[in-house]
Amino acid sequence: MxxxxxxxxxxxxxxxxQWINNDPFAAYKLKIQKVNREQLSEKELADMExxxxxxxxxxx
Length: 60
Description:
- The protein is mainly alpha-helical.
- The protein has helices at 2-16, 42-50, 56-59.
- It has a domain at 1-34.
- The protein is built from 3 helices and no strands.
- It is elongated.
């Protein structure tokens, strides 16, 4: 959603500078949903520490 917000700002700037004539976002409503993120449990953290990765990038 943050990319859409930034794009909308650029479109508004283009309209102010008269680079475009109409707003493609005129009928679009931004729907920002609040997400409740939970912390990992101790078991989940322990499982991640024990995991052996075959790719060095993931191991780091």
